[in-house]
Design brief:
The chain is α+β, with helices and mostly antiparallel strands. Helices cover about 20% and strands about 50% of the residues. It has three helices and five strands; from the N terminus they run αβααββββ.
Length: about 120
């Protein structure tokens, strides 16, 4: 009886400590300082390539216009085996650029944090 109780305690204690973690790293990181180097109606596509490298997406809008998108998603997610508690801290950083005749005519930067905590009771 005592051995069973001790064994049960050890198993339960080890399960409580089982936490699984996954890291998310998708795309190429860029900074707001890099974005601040862009000047509307001045910055060229060659300069964008020097600053950021190739975009994740290039869309042709017309003979003279393109949309370029740079995006990065990063963070971590964890799950605890015994309590079934999950948490995630993920952020997405995106830069959308409208280009006409190889010159940036408009752009928008977004940076969103996605935090989620769940548990099963």
């Amino acid at each position: 009886m005592l051995k069973t109780l001790i064994l049960s305690f050890i198993v339960i204690t080890s399960l409580v400590g089982c936490t699984y973690q996954s890291n998310v790293n998708y795309g190429k990181q860029f900074t707001t300082e890099q974005v601040n180097q862009i000047v509307k109606n001045v910055t060229t596509t060659s300069e964008l390539l020097e600053i950021f490298g190739e975009p994740a997406v290039k869309s042709v809008l017309s003979e003279t216009e393109e949309k370029w998108v740079y995006t990065y998603t990063g963070g971590k997610a964890t799950a605890q085996a015994f309590t079934m508690k999950t948490t995630s801290d993920i952020s997405t950083h995106m830069l959308d650029l409208l280009i006409k005749n190889n010159i940036v005519i408009n752009f928008a930067e977004t940076n969103n944090a996605h935090n989620m905590n769940m548990s099963v009771e």
